[in-house]
């Protein structure tokens, strides 16, 4: 099979690998769509360690091609998306539905083969069937959307609350979609024109450009009516956590989704004086009632056209290098860039 691998900073190559065979408890999936996420881009820029020569990608959807020994409840030909965590399933975290906190967890597409390949062997416990009528490109958005669903459930978002999403990259836009689906009033910051258009299209009622004038207007508005919940979706090396502290109301909650690459200002005094809750959010989990992935798939099913507008670029697998270059260059108009392993 063919698969895209990282071979160095800003170097992605398509190589040939043996076709995988599903082991016990695994299924073989013919991958139809796989997205590029912010973590992938950090690795692409050389900012995060990632196994070179391992097929990339963890935002995937496809069809079951074969079942490994002991797999029940699935059939060849079914359309599925993948919750891309390989875990032990025996530790207290796994047994309580917190698979994302398993000490043995590995995210597919980092140090195990991912979905930017024609085929992948994935654990059967990681699969979710697609709702009727949902195509593979849309289903590949379930993974990043589940990340934001998880963050909002950690901070206990309630209908009618005011939410500020800092950053309108692909994860920030997913947070807008998830918050609006939960009945919140949403505002967001943005850097690029296409991000503002997308944020507005997803239901953001106010948008603020990430520059001196835009942030000054945001501070004026928040001084009159601060936010119940702030979602930080930028990370990097900026002062966005400090901004989040300023924007949250007393007793407000902050969910941190951005991946920070160095120590940054947090605003410890505001944290205390406002009694703000600051919560880090990692991937997704499976509460007893309904998993974050199930919620994400339901949102996508109910908001298909809005979500589809987030897919700005699609490339065949052979052009994975161009896909990463487009995702990296926001002046290209990129929102969510996907690779289609079968063209």
Give an account of the 3D structure.
- With 343 residues, this protein is of the alpha/beta class.
- It has two domains: 2-141 and 310-340, Medium-chain alcohol dehydrogenases, catalytic domain (Quinone Oxidoreductase, Chain A, domain 1); 145-280, NAD(P)-binding Rossmann-like Domain (Rossmann fold).
- The chain contains twelve helices and 17 strands.
- The strands form four sheets. Strands 3, 4, 5, 8, 9, 16 and 17 form a seven-stranded mixed beta sheet that branches.
- Strand 14, helix 9 and strand 15 form a beta-alpha-beta unit.
- Helix 4 (142-154) crosses helix 5 (170-181) and helix 4 (142-154) crosses helix 10.
- The model has no long low-confidence stretch (mean pLDDT 96).
Short overview:
This protein is α/β, with parallel strands linked by helices. The chain folds into two domains: 2-141 and 310-340, Quinone Oxidoreductase, Chain A, domain 1 (Alpha-Beta Complex); 145-280, Rossmann fold (3-Layer(aba) Sandwich), CATH 3.40.50.720.
What keywords describe this structure?
alpha/beta, Quinone Oxidoreductase, Chain A, domain 1, Rossmann fold, 2 domains, seven-stranded mixed beta sheet, six-stranded parallel beta sheet, globular
């Amino acid at each position: 099979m063919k698969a895209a691998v990282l071979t160095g900073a800003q170097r992605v190559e398509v190589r040939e690998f043996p076709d995988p065979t599903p082991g016990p408890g695994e299924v073989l999936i013919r991958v139809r769509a796989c997205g590029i996420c912010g973590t992938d881009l950090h690795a692409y820029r050389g900012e995060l360690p990632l196994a070179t020569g391992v097929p990339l990608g963890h935002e995937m959807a496809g069809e079951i091609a074969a079942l490994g020994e002991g797999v029940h409840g699935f059939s060849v030909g079914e359309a599925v998306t993948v919750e891309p965590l390989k875990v032990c399933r025996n530790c207290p975290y796994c047994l309580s539905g917190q698979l994302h906190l398993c000490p043995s967890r590995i995210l597919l597409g980092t140090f195990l083969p991912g979905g930017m390949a024609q085929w992948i062997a994935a654990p059967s416990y990681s699969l979710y069937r697609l709702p009727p009528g949902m195509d593979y490109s849309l289903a590949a958005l379930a993974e990043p959307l589940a990340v934001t669903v998880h963050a909002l459930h950690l901070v206990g978002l309630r209908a009618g609350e005011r939410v500020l999403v800092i950053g309108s990259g692909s994860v920030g836009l997913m947070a807008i979609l998830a918050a609006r689906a939960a009945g919140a009033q949403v505002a967001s910051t943005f850097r690029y024109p296409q991000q503002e258009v997308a944020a507005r299209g997803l239901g953001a009622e106010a948008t603020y450009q990430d520059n001196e004038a835009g942030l000054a207007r945001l501070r004026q508005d928040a001084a009159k009516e601060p936010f119940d919940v702030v979602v930080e979706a930028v990370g990097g090396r900026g002062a966005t956590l400090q901004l989040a502290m300023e924007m949250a109301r007393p007793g407000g909650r902050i969910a941190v989704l951005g991946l920070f690459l160095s120590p940054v200002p947090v605003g410890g005094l505001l944290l205390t004086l406002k009694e703000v809750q600051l919560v880090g959010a990692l991937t997704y989990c499976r509460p007893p009632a309904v998993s974050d992935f199930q919620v994400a798939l339901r949102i996508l099913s109910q908001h298909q056209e809005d979500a589809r507008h987030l897919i700005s670029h699609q490339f065949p697998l052979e052009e994975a290098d161009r896909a990463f270059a487009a995702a990296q260059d926001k002046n290209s108009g990129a929102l969510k860039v996907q690779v289609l392993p079968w063209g």
